[in-house]
Specification:
heterodimer, A: 118 residues, mainly alpha, 5 helices, flat, B: 195 residues, Four Helix Bundle (Hemerythrin (Met), subunit A), elongated
């Protein structure tokens, strides 16, 4: 049997099927609703804004990270696929995170320095 | 480790096309990281408007976000259909994916036109430059994904995508999911943290 031909048979035994994909889809939809809800509450004024305002950014980042992990794990099949693919993707993500943090720190300092703020 | 990965007759035992697309996706992480960090560095440093708070509209983009999330669900269902040899599921879900992708691009075109009409152009201020560059490159990626998936849809319609060739769709689907996860980051960072 051709190596590619085994893929279909293998997929039939994969734990991730349409039912799982639909469940993940519902979770993603709910998480997006929570994101928008958190934003709206944090900008509504009154008690909600006082409570949620200071923590809305970390809340949004956590919700975003959850959605990211669900899509990568289930829809991109990293949960069941070869670990080398996870390694490749995570390597890119780690370097990307370092790039974002480093650039923000360096450029913020540079811009503040030029404006005489440091 | 999947049986499929083990049975490939390559030096690594992995399908070379999957290694290639994952390597490409890893490199794309760096590309979008540079664009996102540039947007964040310049955020709030404009001396003249329009500002993100004045321009960005949450309801429209929330619909676009939902469309991209639905499209990710639809393409994985299409892939499942392709791997099982279910042509009806493959064509139906892939068609739904294309519709969502086209509507997302249309949403972005409408948003850009609206912003230009309101006075925010690429050269207007730092927000305009960094916003259009970041979301524009993402929109370009979505457009490329739509064209790629449309070509596979056409192949499937002609009956030339048997389950033995499901990997062709899997590679395109991985790219499409990546475009989705990039938006999962852009949506809160740019739109929900606009203040």
């Amino acid at each position: 049997m051709d190596a590619h031909a085994t893929h279909g048979a293998e997929a039939a035994h994969d734990h991730s099927g349409p039912a799982t994909y639909f469940k993940i889809g519902v979770v993603l939809f709910v998480l997006t609703g929570l994101e928008v809800g958190a934003y709206e509450l944090a900008h509504r004024g009154g008690t909600a804004e006082q409570v949620l305002g200071p923590v809305v950014v970390p809340v949004l980042l956590i919700l975003s990270a959850l959605k990211f992990a669900l899509v990568a794990g289930y829809y991109m099949h990293l949960k069941n696929d070869h670990r080398a693919f996870t390694g490749l993707f995570v390597s890119g993500l780690i370097i990307a995170t370092v790039v974002i943090v480093t650039l923000m720190l360096l450029m913020s300092y540079h811009l503040n320095y030029n404006q005489g703020l440091v | 480790m999947t049986a499929h990965a083990m049975e490939m007759h390559t030096a690594t035992g992995l399908d070379n096309r999957k290694v290639a697309i994952w390597t490409f996706i890893a490199s794309e992480c760096l590309f979008f990281a540079s664009l996102i960090s540039t947007y964040l560095v310049y955020k709030g440093r404009d001396t003249a408007g329009p500002t993100p708070s004045e321009m960005l509209q949450i309801p429209l983009v929330t619909i676009g976000t939902a469309l991209l999330l639905f499209s990710s669900l639809f393409v994985v269902l299409a892939l499942n259909g392709a791997q099982r040899g279910n042509r009806k599921a493959l064509i139906g879900w892939l068609g739904a994916t294309l519709v969502c992708g086209i509507f997302f691009v249309a949403m972005q075109v409408y948003e850009f036109q609206h912003f230009v009409h309101e006075g925010l152009k690429l050269q207007t201020n730092l927000f305009g430059s960094s916003f259009y560059t970041l979301t524009g490159f993402h929109g370009t990626h979505v457009t490329i994904g739509v064209i790629w998936l449309a070509s596979i849809f056409w192949t499937a319609l002609r009956g030339n995508l048997p389950k033995e060739k499901a990997m062709n769709l899997e590679i395109a689907a991985l790219y499409w999911h990546f475009v989705d996860v990039v938006w999962i980051v852009i949506f809160p960072v740019v739109y929900l943290m606009k203040d």
